[in-house]
Write a sequence for this structure.
Protein backbone atom coordinates (compact mmCIF):
# COMPACT_ATOMS: atom_id res chain seq x y z
CA UNK A 1 0.00 0.00 0.00
CA UNK A 2 2.76 2.38 0.99
CA UNK A 3 4.40 1.62 -2.38
CA UNK A 4 1.26 2.77 -4.24
CA UNK A 5 1.05 5.87 -2.07
CA UNK A 6 4.71 6.63 -2.86
CA UNK A 7 4.00 6.28 -6.57
CA UNK A 8 1.13 8.79 -6.34
CA UNK A 9 3.34 11.28 -4.48
CA UNK A 10 6.12 10.86 -7.03
CA UNK A 11 3.66 11.38 -9.87
CA UNK A 12 2.40 14.55 -8.21
CA UNK A 13 5.96 15.77 -7.60
CA UNK A 14 6.78 15.05 -11.24
CA UNK A 15 3.71 17.03 -12.29
CA UNK A 16 4.80 20.14 -10.35
CA UNK A 17 8.38 19.60 -11.49
CA UNK A 18 7.09 19.40 -15.08
CA UNK A 19 5.13 22.58 -14.61
CA UNK A 20 8.23 24.69 -13.97
CA UNK A 21 11.15 23.38 -15.95
CA UNK A 22 13.83 26.07 -16.42
CA UNK A 23 14.27 27.46 -19.93
CA UNK A 24 18.04 26.81 -19.99
CA UNK A 25 17.66 23.50 -21.89
CA UNK A 26 15.60 25.27 -24.56
CA UNK A 27 18.24 28.02 -24.77
CA UNK A 28 21.04 25.53 -25.45
CA UNK A 29 19.02 23.63 -28.07
CA UNK A 30 18.10 26.89 -29.82
CA UNK A 31 21.72 28.05 -29.84
CA UNK A 32 22.76 24.90 -31.71
CA UNK A 33 19.75 24.98 -34.05
CA UNK A 34 20.25 28.66 -34.94
CA UNK A 35 23.86 27.89 -35.89
CA UNK A 36 22.64 25.05 -38.16
CA UNK A 37 19.98 27.20 -39.86
CA UNK A 38 22.26 30.20 -40.30
CA UNK A 39 24.65 27.96 -42.18
CA UNK A 40 22.07 27.39 -44.93
CA UNK A 41 21.97 31.05 -45.96
CA UNK A 42 25.12 32.58 -44.43
CA UNK A 43 27.24 31.15 -47.26
CA UNK A 44 25.23 32.80 -50.04
CA UNK A 45 26.57 36.29 -49.32
CA UNK A 46 30.16 35.08 -48.87
CA UNK A 47 30.25 32.99 -52.08
CA UNK A 48 31.85 35.66 -54.30
CA UNK A 49 34.77 36.09 -51.84
CA UNK A 50 35.14 32.32 -51.32
CA UNK A 51 35.07 31.79 -55.09
CA UNK A 52 37.87 34.29 -55.64
CA UNK A 53 40.01 32.91 -52.80
CA UNK A 54 39.67 29.24 -53.72
CA UNK A 55 39.51 29.71 -57.50
CA UNK A 56 35.99 28.28 -57.94
CA UNK A 57 34.51 26.90 -61.14
CA UNK A 58 30.78 27.57 -61.65
CA UNK A 59 29.88 24.06 -60.37
CA UNK A 60 31.92 24.65 -57.20
CA UNK A 61 29.61 27.55 -56.29
CA UNK A 62 26.59 25.31 -56.67
CA UNK A 63 28.12 22.47 -54.63
CA UNK A 64 29.24 24.66 -51.72
CA UNK A 65 25.55 25.31 -51.05
CA UNK A 66 24.19 21.96 -52.30
CA UNK A 67 26.53 19.66 -50.35
CA UNK A 68 25.11 21.03 -47.10
CA UNK A 69 21.45 20.86 -48.13
CA UNK A 70 21.92 17.45 -49.72
CA UNK A 71 23.26 15.69 -46.63
CA UNK A 72 21.12 17.48 -44.08
CA UNK A 73 17.97 16.79 -46.15
CA UNK A 74 18.96 13.20 -46.95
CA UNK A 75 19.88 12.11 -43.43
CA UNK A 76 17.20 13.81 -41.29
CA UNK A 77 14.78 10.85 -41.18
CA UNK A 78 17.57 8.52 -40.13
CA UNK A 79 18.84 11.08 -37.58
CA UNK A 80 15.33 11.37 -36.14
CA UNK A 81 14.91 7.60 -35.83
CA UNK A 82 18.33 7.26 -34.16
CA UNK A 83 17.39 9.97 -31.64
CA UNK A 84 14.39 7.84 -30.62
CA UNK A 85 16.24 4.48 -30.55
CA UNK A 86 19.43 5.65 -28.85
CA UNK A 87 20.09 8.21 -26.12
CA UNK A 88 18.86 11.53 -27.59
CA UNK A 89 21.47 13.51 -25.64
CA UNK A 90 24.26 11.34 -27.08
CA UNK A 91 22.84 11.81 -30.61
CA UNK A 92 22.64 15.58 -30.11
CA UNK A 93 26.25 15.74 -28.88
CA UNK A 94 27.46 13.52 -31.76
CA UNK A 95 25.76 15.76 -34.32
CA UNK A 96 27.07 18.89 -32.60
CA UNK A 97 30.65 17.52 -32.53
CA UNK A 98 30.52 16.58 -36.23
CA UNK A 99 29.06 19.99 -37.16
CA UNK A 100 31.64 21.92 -35.09
CA UNK A 101 34.65 19.98 -36.39
CA UNK A 102 33.38 20.28 -39.98
CA UNK A 103 32.97 24.06 -39.44
CA UNK A 104 36.63 24.26 -38.39
CA UNK A 105 37.68 22.30 -41.49
CA UNK A 106 35.53 24.61 -43.68
CA UNK A 107 37.16 27.66 -42.09
CA UNK A 108 40.66 26.39 -42.87
CA UNK A 109 39.89 24.89 -46.31
CA UNK A 110 42.55 25.59 -48.93
CA UNK A 111 40.72 24.13 -51.96
CA UNK A 112 37.20 23.97 -53.38
CA UNK A 113 37.11 20.17 -52.88
CA UNK A 114 38.05 20.42 -49.18
CA UNK A 115 35.37 23.05 -48.60
CA UNK A 116 32.65 21.07 -50.41
CA UNK A 117 33.43 17.87 -48.45
CA UNK A 118 33.44 19.71 -45.12
CA UNK A 119 30.15 21.43 -46.03
CA UNK A 120 28.68 17.97 -46.61
CA UNK A 121 29.94 16.88 -43.18
CA UNK A 122 28.33 19.99 -41.65
CA UNK A 123 25.03 18.94 -43.26
CA UNK A 124 25.37 15.41 -41.84
CA UNK A 125 26.04 16.87 -38.38
CA UNK A 126 22.95 19.07 -38.73
CA UNK A 127 20.81 16.03 -39.63
CA UNK A 128 21.84 14.24 -36.42
CA UNK A 129 21.60 17.34 -34.23
CA UNK A 130 18.23 18.84 -35.24
CA UNK A 131 15.79 15.96 -34.55
CA UNK A 132 17.62 15.13 -31.29
CA UNK A 133 17.33 18.78 -30.19
CA UNK A 134 13.59 18.91 -30.86
CA UNK A 135 13.20 15.52 -29.16
CA UNK A 136 15.01 16.85 -26.05
CA UNK A 137 12.64 19.87 -26.03
CA UNK A 138 9.60 17.58 -26.36
CA UNK A 139 10.71 15.34 -23.49
CA UNK A 140 11.79 18.23 -21.23
CA UNK A 141 8.67 20.40 -21.40
CA UNK A 142 4.95 19.65 -21.18
CA UNK A 143 1.62 21.42 -21.65
CA UNK A 144 1.73 25.19 -22.10
CA UNK A 145 5.51 25.26 -21.68
CA UNK A 146 5.90 22.79 -24.53
CA UNK A 147 3.63 24.86 -26.81
CA UNK A 148 5.74 27.96 -26.04
CA UNK A 149 9.01 26.08 -26.61
CA UNK A 150 7.76 24.74 -29.97
CA UNK A 151 6.62 28.25 -30.94
CA UNK A 152 10.08 29.68 -30.24
CA UNK A 153 11.71 26.76 -32.09
CA UNK A 154 9.53 27.50 -35.13
CA UNK A 155 10.46 31.18 -35.07
CA UNK A 156 14.18 30.38 -35.04
CA UNK A 157 13.59 28.28 -38.16
CA UNK A 158 12.33 31.19 -40.24
CA UNK A 159 14.40 33.92 -38.59
CA UNK A 160 17.71 32.07 -39.07
CA UNK A 161 17.31 32.06 -42.83
CA UNK A 162 16.77 35.82 -42.97
CA UNK A 163 19.48 36.61 -40.40
CA UNK A 164 22.01 34.40 -42.22
CA UNK A 165 22.19 36.94 -45.04
CA UNK A 166 22.90 39.76 -42.56
CA UNK A 167 25.50 37.82 -40.52
CA UNK A 168 27.12 36.58 -43.70
CA UNK A 169 27.46 40.16 -44.97
CA UNK A 170 28.82 41.56 -41.70
CA UNK A 171 31.31 38.74 -41.01
CA UNK A 172 32.56 38.57 -44.60
CA UNK A 173 33.02 42.34 -44.82
CA UNK A 174 34.65 42.74 -41.40
CA UNK A 175 36.78 39.59 -41.05
CA UNK A 176 36.78 37.78 -44.40
CA UNK A 177 34.80 34.72 -45.48
CA UNK A 178 36.54 32.23 -43.17
CA UNK A 179 34.87 33.93 -40.19
CA UNK A 180 31.43 32.62 -41.18
CA UNK A 181 32.68 29.10 -40.40
CA UNK A 182 35.06 29.91 -37.53
CA UNK A 183 32.25 31.50 -35.51
CA UNK A 184 30.54 28.08 -35.18
CA UNK A 185 33.47 26.60 -33.26
CA UNK A 186 33.14 28.52 -29.95
CA UNK A 187 29.31 28.30 -30.17
CA UNK A 188 29.54 24.52 -30.67
CA UNK A 189 31.93 24.10 -27.72
CA UNK A 190 29.72 26.16 -25.36
CA UNK A 191 26.55 24.31 -26.50
CA UNK A 192 28.26 20.93 -25.92
CA UNK A 193 29.45 21.89 -22.42
CA UNK A 194 26.00 23.21 -21.45
CA UNK A 195 24.25 20.10 -22.85
CA UNK A 196 26.57 17.87 -20.84
CA UNK A 197 25.68 19.79 -17.68
CA UNK A 198 21.98 20.47 -18.12
CA UNK A 199 20.39 17.75 -20.26
CA UNK A 200 19.66 14.43 -18.58
CA UNK A 201 20.72 11.25 -20.37
CA UNK A 202 17.81 9.75 -22.29
CA UNK A 203 16.67 6.15 -22.02
CA UNK A 204 17.65 3.88 -24.92
CA UNK A 205 14.47 2.33 -26.18
CA UNK A 206 15.65 -0.34 -28.60
CA UNK A 207 19.25 0.23 -29.56
CA UNK A 208 20.34 0.01 -33.19
CA UNK A 209 19.21 -3.63 -33.33
CA UNK A 210 15.72 -2.22 -33.80
CA UNK A 211 16.81 -0.13 -36.80
CA UNK A 212 15.65 -1.15 -40.27
CA UNK A 213 19.00 -0.76 -42.09
CA UNK A 214 17.83 -1.66 -45.65
CA UNK A 215 14.91 0.76 -45.24
CA UNK A 216 17.24 3.45 -43.87
CA UNK A 217 19.62 2.95 -46.83
CA UNK A 218 16.75 3.20 -49.35
CA UNK A 219 15.29 6.30 -47.66
CA UNK A 220 18.63 8.12 -47.37
CA UNK A 221 19.76 7.36 -50.95
CA UNK A 222 16.27 8.13 -52.28
CA UNK A 223 16.19 11.51 -50.53
CA UNK A 224 19.79 12.23 -51.61
CA UNK A 225 18.84 11.48 -55.24
CA UNK A 226 15.75 13.69 -54.94
CA UNK A 227 17.61 16.69 -53.49
CA UNK A 228 20.51 16.10 -55.92
CA UNK A 229 18.07 16.19 -58.85
CA UNK A 230 16.38 19.35 -57.57
CA UNK A 231 19.67 21.13 -56.83
CA UNK A 232 21.01 20.21 -60.29
CA UNK A 233 18.12 21.86 -62.15
CA UNK A 234 19.84 25.25 -61.90
CA UNK A 235 22.74 24.00 -64.01
CA UNK A 236 21.08 21.31 -66.11
CA UNK A 237 17.44 22.40 -66.39
CA UNK A 238 14.32 20.38 -65.51
CA UNK A 239 14.05 18.22 -68.62
CA UNK A 240 17.75 17.24 -68.99
CA UNK A 241 18.91 13.61 -68.83
CA UNK A 242 20.82 14.48 -65.62
CA UNK A 243 17.69 15.72 -63.81
CA UNK A 244 15.34 13.01 -65.12
CA UNK A 245 17.81 10.24 -64.17
CA UNK A 246 18.14 11.64 -60.63
CA UNK A 247 14.35 11.88 -60.27
CA UNK A 248 13.85 8.36 -61.67
CA UNK A 249 16.45 7.00 -59.21
CA UNK A 250 14.77 8.89 -56.34
CA UNK A 251 11.33 7.51 -57.31
CA UNK A 252 12.67 3.93 -57.54
CA UNK A 253 14.54 4.15 -54.21
CA UNK A 254 11.66 5.77 -52.31
CA UNK A 255 9.23 3.19 -53.77
CA UNK A 256 11.68 0.50 -52.63
CA UNK A 257 11.74 2.13 -49.19
CA UNK A 258 7.91 1.92 -49.04
CA UNK A 259 8.00 -1.79 -49.97
CA UNK A 260 10.75 -2.63 -47.42
CA UNK A 261 8.89 -0.73 -44.68
CA UNK A 262 5.80 -2.91 -45.13
CA UNK A 263 7.78 -6.11 -44.68
CA UNK A 264 10.09 -5.48 -41.75
CA UNK A 265 9.08 -5.92 -38.10
CA UNK A 266 10.58 -2.56 -37.00
CA UNK A 267 10.29 -0.08 -39.89
CA UNK A 268 12.37 3.14 -40.00
CA UNK A 269 9.12 5.13 -40.12
CA UNK A 270 6.27 3.13 -38.51
CA UNK A 271 3.36 3.14 -41.03
CA UNK A 272 1.09 4.76 -38.44
CA UNK A 273 3.31 7.89 -38.68
CA UNK A 274 2.02 8.62 -42.19
CA UNK A 275 -1.53 8.52 -40.84
CA UNK A 276 -0.90 11.25 -38.22
CA UNK A 277 -2.82 13.95 -40.05
CA UNK A 278 -1.49 16.84 -37.94
CA UNK A 279 2.16 15.85 -38.63
CA UNK A 280 1.82 15.15 -42.36
CA UNK A 281 -0.35 18.19 -43.19
CA UNK A 282 1.85 20.57 -41.16
CA UNK A 283 5.05 19.11 -42.69
CA UNK A 284 3.59 19.66 -46.18
CA UNK A 285 2.84 23.30 -45.35
CA UNK A 286 6.38 23.54 -43.87
CA UNK A 287 7.93 22.30 -47.15
CA UNK A 288 6.06 24.76 -49.38
CA UNK A 289 6.40 27.86 -47.17
CA UNK A 290 10.11 27.18 -46.56
CA UNK A 291 10.59 26.85 -50.32
CA UNK A 292 8.87 30.19 -50.84
CA UNK A 293 10.89 31.94 -48.11
CA UNK A 294 14.30 30.51 -49.07
CA UNK A 295 13.63 31.04 -52.78
CA UNK A 296 12.52 34.62 -52.10
CA UNK A 297 15.64 35.38 -50.04
CA UNK A 298 17.92 33.80 -52.65
CA UNK A 299 16.43 35.76 -55.57
CA UNK A 300 16.01 38.99 -53.57
CA UNK A 301 19.67 38.99 -52.53
CA UNK A 302 20.66 38.69 -56.23
CA UNK A 303 18.15 41.43 -57.09
CA UNK A 304 19.34 43.81 -54.37
CA UNK A 305 22.99 43.37 -55.39
CA UNK A 306 22.63 43.29 -59.20
CA UNK A 307 19.69 45.63 -59.82
CA UNK A 308 19.81 48.05 -56.87
CA UNK A 309 23.62 47.89 -56.61
CA UNK A 310 23.73 47.11 -52.87
CA UNK A 311 26.99 45.79 -51.37
CA UNK A 312 27.02 42.49 -49.44
CA UNK A 313 26.65 44.25 -46.09
CA UNK A 314 23.95 46.65 -47.31
CA UNK A 315 22.05 43.67 -48.75
CA UNK A 316 22.23 42.06 -45.32
CA UNK A 317 20.87 45.22 -43.70
CA UNK A 318 18.09 45.42 -46.30
CA UNK A 319 16.91 42.00 -45.07
CA UNK A 320 16.68 43.28 -41.47
CA UNK A 321 13.06 44.53 -41.84
CA UNK A 322 12.12 41.04 -43.10
CA UNK A 323 13.80 39.43 -40.07
CA UNK A 324 12.26 42.01 -37.71
CA UNK A 325 8.74 41.50 -39.06
CA UNK A 326 9.13 37.68 -38.85
CA UNK A 327 10.12 38.13 -35.19
CA UNK A 328 7.23 40.54 -34.51
CA UNK A 329 4.74 38.20 -36.20
CA UNK A 330 6.06 35.24 -34.23
CA UNK A 331 5.91 37.09 -30.91
CA UNK A 332 2.30 38.13 -31.49
CA UNK A 333 1.47 34.54 -32.52
CA UNK A 334 3.08 33.05 -29.40
CA UNK A 335 0.89 35.31 -27.25
CA UNK A 336 -2.24 34.26 -29.18
CA UNK A 337 -1.50 30.52 -29.08
CA UNK A 338 -4.05 29.73 -26.35
CA UNK A 339 -6.78 31.81 -28.02
CA UNK A 340 -6.31 31.11 -31.74
CA UNK A 341 -5.88 27.63 -33.25
CA UNK A 342 -2.60 26.84 -35.07
CA UNK A 343 -4.71 26.07 -38.16
CA UNK A 344 -6.21 29.59 -38.19
CA UNK A 345 -2.72 31.10 -37.80
CA UNK A 346 -1.38 29.09 -40.73
CA UNK A 347 -4.25 30.08 -43.05
CA UNK A 348 -4.12 33.80 -42.12
CA UNK A 349 -0.30 33.80 -42.35
CA UNK A 350 -0.41 32.33 -45.87
CA UNK A 351 -2.91 34.98 -47.03
CA UNK A 352 -0.63 37.73 -45.65
CA UNK A 353 2.42 36.21 -47.42
CA UNK A 354 0.38 36.10 -50.66
CA UNK A 355 -0.42 39.82 -50.23
CA UNK A 356 3.27 40.64 -49.65
CA UNK A 357 4.22 38.65 -52.75
CA UNK A 358 1.69 40.58 -54.84
CA UNK A 359 3.22 43.86 -53.63
CA UNK A 360 6.62 42.65 -54.91
CA UNK A 361 5.03 41.38 -58.14
CA UNK A 362 3.65 44.82 -59.01
CA UNK A 363 6.91 46.81 -58.83
CA UNK A 364 7.71 49.05 -61.80
CA UNK A 365 10.66 48.76 -64.19
CA UNK A 366 12.79 51.27 -62.24
CA UNK A 367 12.41 49.89 -58.71
CA UNK A 368 13.64 51.44 -55.46
CA UNK A 369 14.17 49.63 -52.17
CA UNK A 370 11.91 51.74 -49.92
CA UNK A 371 9.00 52.11 -52.32
CA UNK A 372 9.03 48.70 -54.00
CA UNK A 373 10.86 46.08 -51.93
CA UNK A 374 10.42 47.10 -48.28
CA UNK A 375 6.56 46.93 -48.04
CA UNK A 376 6.57 43.45 -49.59
CA UNK A 377 9.31 42.24 -47.24
CA UNK A 378 7.44 43.50 -44.17
CA UNK A 379 4.16 41.85 -45.21
CA UNK A 380 5.88 38.54 -46.03
CA UNK A 381 7.64 38.60 -42.65
CA UNK A 382 4.42 39.34 -40.76
CA UNK A 383 2.79 36.35 -42.48
CA UNK A 384 5.73 33.96 -42.12
CA UNK A 385 6.38 34.59 -38.39
CA UNK A 386 3.06 33.25 -37.06
CA UNK A 387 3.12 30.38 -39.53
CA UNK A 388 6.38 28.83 -38.40
CA UNK A 389 5.16 29.08 -34.80
CA UNK A 390 1.86 27.38 -35.68
CA UNK A 391 3.41 24.70 -37.95
CA UNK A 392 5.75 23.42 -35.20
CA UNK A 393 2.91 23.29 -32.67
CA UNK A 394 0.48 21.65 -35.13
CA UNK A 395 3.02 19.10 -36.42
CA UNK A 396 3.97 17.82 -32.97
CA UNK A 397 0.42 17.89 -31.53
CA UNK A 398 -0.25 14.13 -31.67
CA UNK A 399 3.28 12.80 -31.19
CA UNK A 400 4.25 10.74 -28.15
CA UNK A 401 7.58 11.82 -26.63
CA UNK A 402 9.25 8.50 -27.51
CA UNK A 403 8.64 9.16 -31.23
CA UNK A 404 9.38 12.89 -31.20
CA UNK A 405 12.81 12.45 -32.85
CA UNK A 406 11.34 10.73 -35.88
CA UNK A 407 8.41 13.19 -36.10
CA UNK A 408 10.79 16.16 -36.05
CA UNK A 409 12.87 14.34 -38.70
CA UNK A 410 9.77 14.17 -40.91
CA UNK A 411 8.96 17.85 -40.33
CA UNK A 412 12.55 19.06 -40.87
CA UNK A 413 12.91 16.88 -44.01
CA UNK A 414 9.99 18.92 -45.32
CA UNK A 415 11.95 22.05 -44.38
CA UNK A 416 15.15 20.96 -46.20
CA UNK A 417 13.56 19.44 -49.32
CA UNK A 418 11.26 22.47 -49.48
CA UNK A 419 14.25 24.84 -49.31
CA UNK A 420 16.01 23.03 -52.18
CA UNK A 421 12.83 22.83 -54.26
CA UNK A 422 11.91 26.48 -53.64
CA UNK A 423 15.23 27.83 -54.90
CA UNK A 424 15.23 25.47 -57.90
CA UNK A 425 11.60 26.10 -58.86
CA UNK A 426 11.73 29.88 -58.47
CA UNK A 427 15.04 30.01 -60.34
CA UNK A 428 13.38 28.08 -63.18
CA UNK A 429 10.45 30.53 -63.19
CA UNK A 430 12.88 33.49 -63.14
CA UNK A 431 14.88 32.35 -66.18
CA UNK A 432 17.83 34.64 -66.88
CA UNK A 433 19.41 35.72 -63.59
CA UNK A 434 22.74 36.86 -64.99
CA UNK A 435 21.67 40.29 -66.28
CA UNK A 436 20.03 43.27 -64.65
CA UNK A 437 17.27 43.33 -67.26
CA UNK A 438 16.63 39.62 -66.73
CA UNK A 439 16.21 40.12 -62.97
CA UNK A 440 13.93 43.16 -63.35
CA UNK A 441 11.84 41.14 -65.79
CA UNK A 442 11.83 37.99 -63.59
CA UNK A 443 10.81 39.55 -60.28
CA UNK A 444 7.09 40.19 -61.04
CA UNK A 445 6.74 36.74 -62.62
CA UNK A 446 8.36 34.96 -59.66
CA UNK A 447 6.26 36.71 -57.04
CA UNK A 448 3.01 36.20 -58.95
CA UNK A 449 3.78 32.47 -58.84
CA UNK A 450 4.60 32.68 -55.10
CA UNK A 451 1.30 34.52 -54.42
CA UNK A 452 -0.71 31.87 -56.31
CA UNK A 453 1.13 29.06 -54.48
CA UNK A 454 0.41 30.67 -51.09
CA UNK A 455 -3.32 31.01 -51.83
CA UNK A 456 -3.45 27.36 -52.96
CA UNK A 457 -1.54 26.32 -49.81
CA UNK A 458 -3.98 28.29 -47.63
CA UNK A 459 -6.81 26.26 -49.20
CA UNK A 460 -4.91 23.02 -48.51
CA UNK A 461 -4.21 24.03 -44.87
CA UNK A 462 -7.87 24.98 -44.33
CA UNK A 463 -8.91 21.49 -45.42
CA UNK A 464 -6.05 19.31 -44.13
CA UNK A 465 -4.68 20.72 -40.85
CA UNK A 466 -6.73 19.47 -37.86
CA UNK A 467 -8.47 22.13 -35.80
CA UNK A 468 -7.38 22.22 -32.18
CA UNK A 469 -5.97 24.78 -29.77
CA UNK A 470 -2.29 24.89 -28.79
CA UNK A 471 -3.19 24.14 -25.17
CA UNK A 472 -4.99 20.98 -26.27
CA UNK A 473 -1.99 20.13 -28.43
CA UNK A 474 0.46 20.68 -25.59
CA UNK A 475 -1.67 18.93 -23.01
CA UNK A 476 -2.61 16.19 -25.46
CA UNK A 477 0.83 14.79 -25.20
CA UNK A 478 1.21 14.83 -21.53
CA UNK A 479 -2.21 13.35 -20.84
CA UNK A 480 -2.83 10.99 -23.71
CA UNK A 481 0.55 9.43 -24.12
CA UNK A 482 1.70 9.37 -20.54
CA UNK A 483 0.66 5.78 -20.14
CA UNK A 484 2.28 4.40 -23.30
Amino acid sequence: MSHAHGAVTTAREEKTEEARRPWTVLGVMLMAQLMVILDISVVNVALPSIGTALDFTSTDYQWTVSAYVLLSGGLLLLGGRLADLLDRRAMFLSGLALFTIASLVSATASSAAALIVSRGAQGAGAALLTPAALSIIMSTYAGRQRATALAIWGTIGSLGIALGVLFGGILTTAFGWRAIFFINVPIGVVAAAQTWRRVARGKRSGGVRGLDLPGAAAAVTGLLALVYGIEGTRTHGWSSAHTLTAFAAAAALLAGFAVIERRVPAPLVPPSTWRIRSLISASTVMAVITGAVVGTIFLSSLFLQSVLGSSAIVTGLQFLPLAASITAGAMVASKLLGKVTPKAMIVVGLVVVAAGSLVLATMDSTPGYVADVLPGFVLIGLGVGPMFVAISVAAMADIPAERSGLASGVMMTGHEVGAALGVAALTAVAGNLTSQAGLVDAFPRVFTVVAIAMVALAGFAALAVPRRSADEAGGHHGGHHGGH
Q: What stands out?
A: The longest helix spans residues 143-175.
